[in-house]
Each structure stands twice: as C-alpha cells, then as structure tokens.
C-alpha cells in the first residue's frame, strides 16, 4: 500500500509509531494509500525546522524571495498534468477541474512574485521638525495553514504562496482525505530553491490541528474548512494569542430576475451547481427565481439540461463531474436528500438513481433538483456540499435579497439581470462577501481578495491580494530624527503633531 509521509526540512519524514488514515480512490471506492497522522513529536520537528530556517529567509532580500516564486511557477506549469492526475485520483474531480484547481493556485503564486512591491512600507518626510516617519511590514515568524479537501492545490497555495513570499516559514496541515498534492507542491518549492525548513507539510487530524493552535512558536494560523471547525479554530487559536483567519462553509444563492437571460442562467447553473459534484465553497446550490413565471420557465429549461449531465469516472473526458470524495460524504449528501423530502420539498430530479456508472463501487451521486424549498427547512439552512440544487421561489426583489442576506452563510452570491440599476442596488445591499453580477462563481482574481461574511469567515482579513500580505505580516512604524548638533533646538525634541 502506498504511504504518504510528512515533509519536514526538505525531506520526507516518517514516524512508524503514528496512526494512519485511509486515502480512498473515489472512482472505485478502494483504499489507495495510507497517510500518517502526526503526533506532537512530528509537529515539534516541523516547528523546529521552520524556526531554524525563518530568520535567514526573512533576511533574504525580497527580490530573491520572489525569484523562488518565479521558479516555482515554472515548475508548476511543467508538472501541471502530473499533479492534476494525482489530485483527481484522490479527490474525484474531473481532470479539467483539477487543472483549474492548480491554475487558481498558480495565479496566487504569480501575485506572490510581486512581493517586493506588495511588501513595501510607507514613508512621510518631515512629519515634524527634522522628523521622518516610515513603516515596514515584517514577517510574523513561523506560521501555519490548515486546509480542506476540496481544493488541495489552490488553497494551500493561497496561504503558503503569500506567507512565504513575505518571509515567514510555514507549516501546512492539508486535508487527510487528499494529502498527496500538497506534498508534491512542497517538493517543487524545494526544487525551486526554497531553503529547507521554510515549507513543511505535516499530515494529521484534530490532534495535529490542536497542536498547531496551542503551539507557542506558531504566530498565525489560516484555516479553511467547515464552519463549526472554523469557529473552533478561531476561538482556540485566538485564546492562545495567535493571529487567526478561519474561512467556513457556504450556501450561495443565485438570484434570477424576470428579465434575466434564462438560457445563460441554465448553462451557468449546470457548472455552478453541479460542477465538481457541488464540492466547492463557491458553488451555487440555491437558485432564487423572482416571480412564479420566472420559476416555471427556469424549471422547464433546467430539467433537460440536468438530464444531459454526465457523471462518470474523473478521467473520462466526457464527464461533467466525477465521484464525491468519500463514501462517508456520499452518505451525508444522501441524508440531506432524505431530509429535504421529509421536510416537504418537491424532488424534481433524483440523482441517487440516475446517470451513475453502474459498474463501479465509486462514490457517485447524480445531479439532484428540488423545488418549493422554503427558508424554514433545515436542508436549506445547512450546507449540503454535494450535487444538489434547491429552488427557493421569491415573490419580489426584496424577498430575494433578504433570503441571501439573512442566511447564516455569506460567502458568495450571484444575480442575473439585464437591469444595471437593480444589479447595483443588489451589490450594495446584499449581506454577503463576494458578489457576481451575471457571473455564477464570483471567485475574485488573485490580486483582489477572497473571503466571505457571517459564518463563512471568522476573523477579519481575507485570503491573498493585499489582505493576504496584511495577514502574514506585522507593521512596524519608525519615527526618526538625526540631529547633527548645528541647530540650537537640536536638544528639544518636538513631538511631530506639535511641531
Ligand atoms: P473540514 O472542516 O472537515 O476539514 C478542514 C480541515 O480541518 C482539515 O484539514 C481537517 O483535517 C481539519 N479538521 C477536521 N476535523 C477537525 C476537528 N474536529 N478539529 C480540528 N480540525 C479538524 O472541511 P472539509 O470537509 O475538508 O472541506 C469542506 C468544507 O470547507 C466545506 O464546508 C466548504 O464550504 C469549506 N470551504 C470553505 C472555503 C472558504 O473559503 N470559505 C473554501 C473551501 C472549502
């Protein structure tokens, strides 16, 4: 059986006494590898190696740090197909989605190549008599990232790309469900010239996470995963005196105004609701048609489009999407389908019995559509994270905006309309962090910033872009004067604001 080891100080690291977890092949349902789950000794080794490397790395001039990022970008491009294959085999997303996962991470690396500019401080000449004030953004030290299964390349790169470029050393605790690609990324960083110990990968579960949250030498933690755990990570990390950002779950709404281009909406929904089997935090699992006529027209167009969705093995080039990540997750999604039926939603299209490769014990689940879902239903209030689309009908614009605004999650939202005034008002009013106007999955580009609101994000800084630089650095402000003895007032220091 293939073993997936930790990666510490530029080398594969193994402690045979540790327990392991199974990594499945979602296409077949088989176990394909075992991953070691770090104990506290392993975590301490990673912290020691990160501590040993950090001071010199932070003192490396920013242009040299950027050159490592440039080289890493080239290596990523050269290894993209191999990585996508590996990613797809553990996650179950189709190869084109796996390529996209790598591509979106690579774009953050491109942003990180500009770190000499992004990390510059500010300067005020003559803030008082002979006094100048300047600021610098310094690395925090040893920092950590804890990532979910659904983007095993992109989300680690959101974090370590910016953190390392800023001069930190990094401990990555990836999801134990698809842990191979994060290790491969770390190896490529070493090949790109990153000094040993600046990036370490430690696999594990709650024990490793708690160890990171409590460790006195880890100064900041970035987390992405489900909301209850995000909340826990935020509170426990903050109690231990760390800087913490913790992104949680989502239930993104797509609001469809009566004037929307419904053919465009349906084409977009097929990808946004069902792509990657709905295992995206920026998926659109809720569609809100405004007015009964819009709802009926939309439903009539959606049903044939859903029938055409092909669910198959992740390597099948014709597949729209592949299996979900584990059998446990499949059972959880099916549990929500049962719940929605019990709650009285209308099951329009049942994915449990359709379009699934019949020769496979893989974790497949077909596209599912519910209509007449209402806001009091638990299946609406909670995140399903599977290929299940729910239609929640709204009478008017206000009701639609309030649905999205009042939901516990506030990651993304989309609106389809041809009316610029309505779109503008929507963008201003809606209580959600990332908004798409005629864009189904409004994931911001790497030089902007990614982050939701409400229970989709705990802490107040986002991922990547300048918010990322801000999260991974601390500001030092220097007020200086250099009296040369020629002025009789030299000994009388004047506070700048009084000067
Ligand atoms: P998860 O919460 O199960 O796991 C995330 C990380 O937490 C993993 O590294 C895991 O090992 C660790 N973990 C699991 N249980 C833990 C516990 N009890 N204590 C401490 N740590 C624990 O999430 P997942 O299933 O891997 O990923 C899917 C979730 O992530 C969805 O809710 C999705 O919406 C969310 N997500 C959010 C964003 C965002 O930016 N808001 C992006 C991607 C995914």
From TrEMBL:
Gene3D superfamilies: Aldehyde Dehydrogenase, Chain A, domain 1 (3.40.605.10), Aldehyde Dehydrogenase, Chain A, domain 2 (3.40.309.10). GO terms for biological process: L-valine catabolic process; thymine catabolic process. Residues 14-478 form the Aldehyde dehydrogenase domain. The keyword Oxidoreductase applies. It comes from the Bacteria. Its EC number is 1.2.1.27. GO terms for molecular function: methylmalonate-semialdehyde dehydrogenase (acylating, NAD) activity. InterPro entries: Ald_DH/histidinol_DH (IPR016161), Ald_DH_C (IPR016163), Ald_DH_N (IPR016162), Aldehyde_DH_dom (IPR015590), MeMal-semiAld_DH (IPR010061). The keyword Iron-sulfur does not apply. Keywords: NAD, Oxidoreductase. NCBIfam families: MMSDH (TIGR01722). This is methylmalonate-semialdehyde dehydrogenase (CoA acylating). The lineage of its organism: Bacteria, Pseudomonadati, Pseudomonadota, Gammaproteobacteria, Alteromonadales.
């Amino acid at each position: 059986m293939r073993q997936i080891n930790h990666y510490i100080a530029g080398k594969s690291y193994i402690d045979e006494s540790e327990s392991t977890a199974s990594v499945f092949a979602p296409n077949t349902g088989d176990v394909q590898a075992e991953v070691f789950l770090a104990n506290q000794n392993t975590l301490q080794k990673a912290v020691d190696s990160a501590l040993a490397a950090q001071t010199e790395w932070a003192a490396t001039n920013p242009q040299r740090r950027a050159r490592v990022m440039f080289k890493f970008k080239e290596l990523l491009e050269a290894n993209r197909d191999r990585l996508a294959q590996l990613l797809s085999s553990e996650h179950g997303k189709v190869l084109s989605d796996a390529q996209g996962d790598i591509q979106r991470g690579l774009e953050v690396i491109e942003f990180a190549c500009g770190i000499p500019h992004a990390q510059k401080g500010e300067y005020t000449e003559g803030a008082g008599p002979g006094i100048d004030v300047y600021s610098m953004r310094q690395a925090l030290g040893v920092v950590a990232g804890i990532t979910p299964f659904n983007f095993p390349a992109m989300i680690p790169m959101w974090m370590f790309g910016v953190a390392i470029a800023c001069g930190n050393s990094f401990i990555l605790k990836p999801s134990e469900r698809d842990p191979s690609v994060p290790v491969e990324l770390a190896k490529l960083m070493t090949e790109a010239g990153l000094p040993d110990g600046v990036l370490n990968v430690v696999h594990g579960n709650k024990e490793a996470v708690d160890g990171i949250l409590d460790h006195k030498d880890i100064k900041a933690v970035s987390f992405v995963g489900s909301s209850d755990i995000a909340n826990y990570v935020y509170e426990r990390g903050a109690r231990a005196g760390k800087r913490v950002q913790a992104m949680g779950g989502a239930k993104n709404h797509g609001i469809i105004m009566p004037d929307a281009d419904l053919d465009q909406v349906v084409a977009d929904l097929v990808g946004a609701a069902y792509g990657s089997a709905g295992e995206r935090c920026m998926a659109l699992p809720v569609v809100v048609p405004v007015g009964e006529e819009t709802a009926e027209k939309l439903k009539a167009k959606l049903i044939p489009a859903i029938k055409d969705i092909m669910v198959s093995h992740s390597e099948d080039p014709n597949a729209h999407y592949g299996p979900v990540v584990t059998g446990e997750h499949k059972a959880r999604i099916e549990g929500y389908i049962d719940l929605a039926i019990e709650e009285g939603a209308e099951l329009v299209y049942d994915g449990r019995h359709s379009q699934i490769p019949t020769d496979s014990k893989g974790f497949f689940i077909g596209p599912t559509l519910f209509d007449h879902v209402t806001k009091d239903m638990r299946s609406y209030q909670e995140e399903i994270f599977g290929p299940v689309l729910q239609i929640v009908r709204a009478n008017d614009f206000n009701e639609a905006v309030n649905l999205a605004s009042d939901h516990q999650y506030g990651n993304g939202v989309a609106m389809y309309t041809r009316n610029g005034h309505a779109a503008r008002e929507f963008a201003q009013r809606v209580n959600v962090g990332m908004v798409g106007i005629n864009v189904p999955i409004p994931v911001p580009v790497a030089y902007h910033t990614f982050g939701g609101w409400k229970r989709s994000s705990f802490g107040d800084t986002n991922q990547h872009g300048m918010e990322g630089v801000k999260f991974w650095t601390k500001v030092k402000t220097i007020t200086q004067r250099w009296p040369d003895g020629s002025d009789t007032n030299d000994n009388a220091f004047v506070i700048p604001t009084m000067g």
